Amino acid sequence: MNKIELSVADIHAATQQSEAFYLILKEKEGSRYVPVIIGMSEARAILVELNQSPTHRPLTHELFITLADNFLCSLVEVDIIHHENGVYYADMLMKRDDDTVFHIDARPSDAIALALKSNAPFFMNTDIFEKTCQIDESQGNGEIITKEYNEVADLLSENEEDLMDTEAFIDQKLKEMSVSELQHLLEGAVENEDFELAEKIQKEIEKR
């Protein structure tokens, strides 16, 4: 499979009314990038690794790495191999200590958080990248991290009080939305496999 190695260039909020974020994956050699919609928890995990932030308790991706280590296997690389209806699909290549390999189907957001934790490379199928990429017009030093990066990092802080404030903010925003707006948001959350947000929206709809 022809593939292009990627790096995380940016993460920023997709809208002010939802938990959706854009993960900006940029080719390591060039100025093109692909935006991938991810959920709040996945954005938080990726930011933790990018910032090398300590966590009070293990996050899901950290737990996965601990389990893999204890079962004597490691993540070799992540490949984004399929794209359909706006959704990307990833494959994680794992290797056991006896050099046998196996594959695990994963969402790109989860897989990239694991790759960052494991210092493993991640790639995208060249055909998919060519069809979905955009051009970074800034053409700077290989990074397009914006001022929103720190704002999102603050929003997803590991401080428990900050997380509680964020949850309360999200709940309030959902209460302010109409049923039709909630249903539209629910469709988007399900399509992007953000089931945590989908559950919140469904509960709010059921209250009406």
Helix percent band: 40-55%
Q: In oligomeric terms, what are we looking at?
A: single chain
Number of helices: 8
Instruction: State Rg.
Output: 18 Å
The span between the termini is: 50 Å
Mean pLDDT: 81
The description of the largest β-sheet is: 8 strands, mixed
Instruction: Report the count of strand segments.
Output: 8
In words, what does this structure look like?
The protein is α+β, with helices and mostly antiparallel strands and 208 residues long. Helix content is 44%, strand content 28%. It contains eight helices and eight strands, in the order βββααβββαβαβαααα. The chain has helices at 40-51, 60-70, 108-118, 126-132, 148-155, 160-176, 179-191, 195-207, and strands at 3-13, 21-27, 32-38, 73-84, 87-96, 101-106, 122-125, 134-135. The protein has an eight-stranded mixed sheet with strand order 6-5-4-7-1-2-3-8. β1 and β2 form a beta hairpin. α1 (40-51) packs parallel to α3 (108-118), α2 (60-70) crosses α3 (108-118) and α7 (179-191) packs antiparallel against α8. It is globular. The model is unreliable at 139-153 and 156-164 (pLDDT under 50).
